[in-house]
Amino acid sequence: MAERITSLEKLTHREAKLLQLIRETQHGEMRLIIQDGHAIRIEDWKKSMKL
Questions:
Q1: Where are the alpha helices (DSSP H) in the chain?
Q2: Residue range 9-48, pLDDT digits in tens
């Protein structure tokens, strides 16, 4: 597995959840809503699979 980059800042619960969703989605698109510098929700989420 590839080495993960660590940061001095601690991730919020939403940030950690977003990173987990991104890592679990191998191919696809997400439309992320951000307010005041924080990820609020994903509105469109399309997974795709290569054949």
A1: 13-24
A2: 788 888 888 888 888 888 888 899 999 988 888 888 787 7
Tokens of 34: 């951000």
* Virtual torsion, Cα 5, 11, 13, 14, nearest 10 deg: -80
Separation of alpha carbons 2 and 41, rounded Å: 27
Token pair listed for 5: 């980059």
Distance CA 51, CA 46 (A): 16
User: How far is the C-alpha of 46 from the C-alpha of 31, rounded, in Å?
Assistant: 9
